[in-house]
């Protein structure tokens, strides 16, 4: 029973959005009568090119938000799109190819179906199983699926064919790539909507009528537990399944089952709520932000240990509620509004059109105060600083003398990683900002802010700043040239600093180079085994200074690896 599994925290709740922003199709999207939906004119209306294109564009516009890929380079999650028929799958697949044709980084889209893939369901809403037998498909469906498999083969360097064994092998490989997060969006009719479990899948877009058992089965593809960033299964329906969802949920319990199975609303997360099931009171985003800005207007000025702890707990609360809210379209529009010039009528109209905001709704959005991106980066930087201080810099004697107990503090590392930016993104930012700013001091300040807010690239701050200061960026005509120039610079600095470290510490040259190279390859230094001992200068292990020397060398190499991991080259 899904209610028991959710209460026992074995699976997650569902957050269901009923997306009905296409007024000309609204009545048909709300239709529940199977006979009316199967009528030829209604089937064609639901497959109208304008409707398919609008939904395709919505998915592309919101995909990064829904799958937690807001930061460039973030792994995030992947998604499925459940459609009503093979014909619908074909229309959507072709629409994604067309709309993404000129995109620099298009989503990796795949599809799968077989014979008997259609809208019909039995009395309890079971999704009809699809067979691996492709011989019964008509020629049009076969031709389309063969072309889609060919696209997949080109993408993943495979060679699957549309015969019985080839199709089964394609199914298995597709399942593997979905679980690995390598396919961004999978378009399905019935296959994969039952029995397929992938914790990396968090979003289901739905353009088909579901009910009862089949609805719960399909929704349940999204609610497998992963980590702190995945708080619920994300469901976005392009048909009005609100009553069908309530009916399916109440089939498994009573009127209160809805509170167990479905997530709270945007308004509740913004303003706060008391959980009906647990009785726990939860503060809203508005109150958390208000306290954060009142107590810590300048996070860089935090010095007292008690303030550090209070800040970490409060900003952790901010990260948790923001992680939930980023799944809501309303929050995306709220954040986007911060960057709109309200004195520019064209920019304002473009914003309202993109986020489906009316003139009546705009004042309410304007009234909500959220931290700017720059302020959030400053908060994140201080949060990382305190974490580093607690882990590395606070001495054992300080910990012993401190009256502050940190045992009840949990650093939200998973949430920080979900917002992580990669090195290529930082380098592209340097290129773009240099074109705008033309001032290295201001450029360095902006880049420092971004790097310090990054969990994985903080150690590269001096490397990146030195690159900016020592390079004529105006001579680099495109992003690729700047990226290549950085890696050349970084590899030179890596060799120079490695030579200096080996010489300064009087290390065994060959053993040290070998140990550092292995550490760079695996992206961390380890003091397990004998490799570290082998590179140390000759000294008896009984020498009182041996252990302190070993620890000192290890810490310096670990810092070196943090700084240069990912830049390539030889030491």
TrEMBL record:
Keywords: ATP-binding, Helicase, Hydrolase, Nucleotide-binding, Restriction system. The keyword Metal-binding does not apply. Residues 261-564 form the Type I restriction enzyme R protein C-terminal domain. InterPro entries: HsdR_RecA-like_helicase_dom_2, P-loop_NTPase, Type-I_R_enzyme_R_subunit, TypeI_RM_Rsu_C. GO terms for biological process: DNA restriction-modification system. Signal peptide: none annotated. Coiled coil: none annotated. GO terms for molecular function: helicase activity. Gene3D superfamilies: 1.10.10.2110, 1.20.58.2040, P-loop containing nucleotide triphosphate hydrolases. PANTHER family: TYPE I RESTRICTION ENZYME ENDONUCLEASE SUBUNIT, TYPE I SITE-SPECIFIC DEOXYRIBONUCLEASE PROTEIN SUBUNIT M AND R. This is DEAD/DEAH box helicase. It comes from Acidithiobacillus thiooxidans ATCC 19377. The lineage of its organism: Bacteria, Pseudomonadati, Pseudomonadota, Acidithiobacillia, Acidithiobacillales. The gene is hsdR.
């Amino acid at each position: 029973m899904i209610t028991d599994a959710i209460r026992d925290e074995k699976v997650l709740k569902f957050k269901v959005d009923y997306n009905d922003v296409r007024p000309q199709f609204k009545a048909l999207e709300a239709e529940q009568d199977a006979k009316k939906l199967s009528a030829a004119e209604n089937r064609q209306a639901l497959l109208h090119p304008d409707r398919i294109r609008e939904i395709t564009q919505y998915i592309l516009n919101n995909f990064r938000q829904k799958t937690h890929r807001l930061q460039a380079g973030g792994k995030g999650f992947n998604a499925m799109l459940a459609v009503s028929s093979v014909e619908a799958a074909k229309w959507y697949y072709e629409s994604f190819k067309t709309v993404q044709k000129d995109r620099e980084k298009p989503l990796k889209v795949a599809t799968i179906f077989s014979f008997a893939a259609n809208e019909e369901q039995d009395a309890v809403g079971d999704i009809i199983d699809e067979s691996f037998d492709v011989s019964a498909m008509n020629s049009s469906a076969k031709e389309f699926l063969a072309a889609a498999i060919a696209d997949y083969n080109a993408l993943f360097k495979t060679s699957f064919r549309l015969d019985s064994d080839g199709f089964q092998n394609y199914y298995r490989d597709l399942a593997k790539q979905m679980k690995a997060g390598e396919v961004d969006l999978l378009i399905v009719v019935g296959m994969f909507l039952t029995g397929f479990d992938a914790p990396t899948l968090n979003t289901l877009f739905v353009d088909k009528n579901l009910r009862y058992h089949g609805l719960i089965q399909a929704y349940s593809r999204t609610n497998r537990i992963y980590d702190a960033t995945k708080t619920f299964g994300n469901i976005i329906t392009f048909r009005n399944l609100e009553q069908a969802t309530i009916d399916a949920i109440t089939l498994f319990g009573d009127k209160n089952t809805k509170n167990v199975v479905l997530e709270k609303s945007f308004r509740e997360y913004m303003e706060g709520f008391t959980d009906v099931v647990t009785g726990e009171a939860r503060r809203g985003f508005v109150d958390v932000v208000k306290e954060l800005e009142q107590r810590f207007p300048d996070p860089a000025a935090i010095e007292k240990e008690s303030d550090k702890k209070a800040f970490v707990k409060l900003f952790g609360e901010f990260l948790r509620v923001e992680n939930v809210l980023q799944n809501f379209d309303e929050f995306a529009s709220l954040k986007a509004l911060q960057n709109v010039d309200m004195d520019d009528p064209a920019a304002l109209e473009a914003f309202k059109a993109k986020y489906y905001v009316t003139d009546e709704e705009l004042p309410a959005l304007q009234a909500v105060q959220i931290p700017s991106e720059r302020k959030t980066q400053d908060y994140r930087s201080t949060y990382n600083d305190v974490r580093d201080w607690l882990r590395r810099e606070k001495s054992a004697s300080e910990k012993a003398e401190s009256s502050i107990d940190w045992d009840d503090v949990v650093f939200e590392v998973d949430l920080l990683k979900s917002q992580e930016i990669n090195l290529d993104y930082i380098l592209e930012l340097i290129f773009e900002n240099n074109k705008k700013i033309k001032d290295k001091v201001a450029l360095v300040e902006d880049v420092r802010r971004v790097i310090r807010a990054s969990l994985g690239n903080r150690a590269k701050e001096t490397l990146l700043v030195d690159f900016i200061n020592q390079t004529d960026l105006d001579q680099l005509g495109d992003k690729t040239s700047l990226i290549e120039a950085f890696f050349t610079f970084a590899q030179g600095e890596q060799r120079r600093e490695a030579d200096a470290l080996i010489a300064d510490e009087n290390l065994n040259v060959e053993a040290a180079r070998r140990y550092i190279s292995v550490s760079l390859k695996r992206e961390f230094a380890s003091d397990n085994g004998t490799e570290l001992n082998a590179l140390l200068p000759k000294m008896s292990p009984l020498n009182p200074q041996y252990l302190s020397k070993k620890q000192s060398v290890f810490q310096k190499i670990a810092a070196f690896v943090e700084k240069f991991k990912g830049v390539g080259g030889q030491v």
